[in-house]
Amino acid sequence: MTRYPQDGYMQPFRIVRPGVQRFTSTQMSENLEDGLYYVDVRVRSLGAGEDYNLAEGTRFWAVFGSYRSDGYRYIVEDTAFSYSPEERVGLIFSPRLLPVGSPDRPESMIQLVGQNVQVNYEHSPTVLNVHQFVNSREDRPVNANPMARHYLPAWVYVFLRYQGGGEPPELADEIIDLIRSLGPLDALQIDEVEKIVKNSGATYIQHPIWLRAAILDMRRNWIVIESDDYLRSTAEDPEVLGTDRLTYFNPGDNTSRADVVPPGPQIRLERVLAGPLLR
Question: What confidence score (pLDDT) does residue 244 get?
């Protein structure tokens, strides 16, 4: 080993860290299912036997500090002000990125230090107007510290395949209207989605149907929830989102006309004209 490493040559060995798993942007780009990117993570049990088995439906999420990820993340100074005009939030970027399709080598990384970054965002003018009103001494007596905040934002994914019935883009628009019509305490139910398709004359609907929502929690971390029954506007387990506050469901884009499933939140219906429905 005294002759290695040699610059400019592939070395006849690898240096690895036991227990460390690495996933590249190229790997993730090749793993797209129903609009969501994913990776398969190996989980090692602490022991053998039934006592060490995980129950079906056990939720997993990555604990910050136990992994390193390239890209960006949000930093919220105080979650008491999350999604209000008083919130102070920052963006933390990794110093470099590995573009999709590039070999997993240090020289393939794009350095972000010294680069210009354009940030596009949306905001709720209604929340700002309400906040200014409740704090305006010209409009009302203020004897407390009122603050207006937005619901937790969530983006809904719906994928559904069926036979017979109406045109997929038109039915997807009806599902989008259904989601937008939900009240603050209403749940998005599978049977209401199915009813729209059945009323159009569909003869068969493929099951299971999964409702998914990508939600930003109180610290602006992404959390994905799913159900084959309904999505509630309040968290089943407040610890998941860090609060029991209401969630506002935003329907994804209607992608029923697209030939290829794109990434991101979407409402997509596919009609199969004949033959068995196969995933």
Answer: 65
